[in-house]
Write a structure and sequence with these properties.
Length: 471
């Protein structure tokens, strides 16, 4: 990424008559002002208007994608988008299929995710060496993890499988855990010749934490959970998370991580929220992880406008008009991970949905740009006053917050013991990808624990050993 790493609420909404009828129906009302009670149990099973809105948003998002066109590269977006954002976009399309059952993008998704997996099936693609960071690789790994959890159709048997791809990403990153500086942590960049190699950013470590927690849940393997605990403890000890659960951007190895950059971004909160919710389940509902879920969720209030209640704002750049191409997509990930958290931590449902409903309604009003009249802007707090910006990030953010309202109609993510079918490979990626410019010995053998412990067979926990909380 180029950016500096980079119940008590009213459930009825009154929709004004507007040209964006499909998008506005996200809140399940007719343009005539007929009100539908969102408490209606039927809405939790079937809400065709929300599905139609998600479909429109997905169509407009995919208008930027060229990987399925003649001469295009599967799994890649054109300039100015970096490689990682296509992996993030594919995560949104996986959610789209999960929520709606619409399979029109499935072949494209499978093609792109397999094409970009690289020669070692670990999302270390040779043509991305000059830009790929740990966070970039991690977004592709999280997409593969979602595919496994959501039972997205498996690839052909002779191709890499979703779970194995997620494991490969995790294992390559475990090998990069760097104790030479800051007593641990992942660097932002993988290769020392890239700008940012001297920076340990929160999103890279947050993605590693998120993957570890989710792999622990899916496989039942305690070692993944041990890594998740280790990353969490390091994040706290390094000061990248404050006592009030605000996640900061990162710090430099040259100063032994003493210069914490206190910028706050939505996706850092979201990636840790879902990871903590998975750890809550994996630990059979431990109070420690429940408290952490609650505290992270409470701290996300900083990302919701006080003047337009419960509408999401990227506070680091949006109010100042300084958001870049990467930043425009960040609200998509907080929306995605907040919705997913309700499956792992069902007591959060009312609090989270109150925010997502308000944000979805506001985002829908921003979707009035472009020749289609449905392209989405960034400044949801501006309501129907379109902000004039368009792009993959704006579109993805609006799409994710809209389709997140369908969370109650889908089952919880599966695991190996609850219906998961994706095949894993616990030693995938354990050979590692090392920086050819890094002096040998910079990472000591004792720090390469990922290669050893993940070669053991996955321990499949019985259903009774898991704390499945399905809303």
């Amino acid at each position: 990424m180029e950016a500096l790493s980079h119940t008590n609420y009213d459930r009825r909404w009154h929709t004004p008559l507007a040209s964006l009828i499909t998008i506005l129906l996200i809140i399940c009302q007719l343009s005539t002002g007929i009100q539908l009670n969102l408490d209606d149990p039927g809405m939790r099973v079937r809400c065709p208007f929300r599905i139609a809105a998600a479909k429109t948003a997905a169509r407009d998002m995919m208008s930027y994608y060229t990987g399925n066109q003649p001469g295009g590269i599967p799994g890649n977006l054109p300039d100015p988008y970096y490689w990682w954002e296509c992996g993030a976009m594919f995560g949104s399309l996986l959610d789209y299929y999960y929520y709606t059952g619409d399979s029109q993008y499935n072949a494209l998704l499978t093609d792109g995710m397999l094409f970009q997996a690289g020669p070692n099936s670990d999302y270390m693609t040779p043509n991305q060496t000059k830009t790929e960071g740990n966070d970039d690789q991690g977004f592709w790994g999280m997409a593969a993890m979602s595919a496994a959890e959501q039972k997205f159709p498996n690839p052909p048997a002779n191709k890499p499988q979703w779970l194995a791809l997620a494991q490969a990403v995790f294992n390559t990153q475990a090998l990069r855990w760097d104790t030479q500086f800051c007593s641990g942590g992942l660097r932002w960049q993988i290769f020392s010749f890239n700008t940012g190699y001297d920076y340990k950013n929160t999103i890279s470590n947050g993605v590693f934490f998120n993957l570890g927690a989710r792999l622990a849940m899916y496989t039942g393997n305690q070692t993944y959970a041990d890594w998740a605990e280790k990353v969490w403890d390091w994040t706290v000890a390094t000061g990248l998370m404050s006592q009030d659960y605000h996640f900061y951007d990162g710090a430099h190895t040259t100063l032994n991580c003493s210069d914490v950059n206190k910028q706050v971004w939505t996706y850092n909160a979201g990636v840790h929220l879902l990871g903590a919710a998975n750890m809550y389940n994996f630990t059979n509902g431990s109070q420690k992880w429940k408290d952490r879920v609650d505290d992270i969720l409470n701290a996300t209030s900083q990302f919701f406008s006080p003047t337009v209640p419960n509408v999401m704002v990227e506070i680091q750049c949006e109010p100042f008009g300084t958001c870049d191409t990467d930043n425009w997509s960040f609200k998509a990930y907080l929306s995605r991970w907040m919705a997913a958290t309700t499956k792992m931590a069902p007591w959060t449902y009312d609090v989270i949905l109150e925010k997502l409903r308000a944000s979805a309604a506001a985002a829908a009003l921003q979707c009035s740009g472009g020749s289609s009249g449905t392209l989405c802007g960034m400044r949801w707090t501006d309501g129907a006053k379109y902000d004039g910006t368009t792009g993959v990030g704006q579109q993805m953010s609006a799409m994710e917050v809209m389709q997140s309202l369908l969370i109650a109609r889908v089952a919880a993510p599966v695991t190996n013991s609850t219906g998961g079918t994706s095949q894993g490979n616990p030693s995938a990626g354990s050979s590692g990808t090392f920086d050819p410019a890094m002096p040998q010995g910079a990472i000591q053998k004792k720090d390469r624990v990922g290669a050893g412990f993940l070669t053991t067979l996955i321990i499949i926990s019985g259903i009774g050993s898991l704390w499945w909380m399905i809303s």
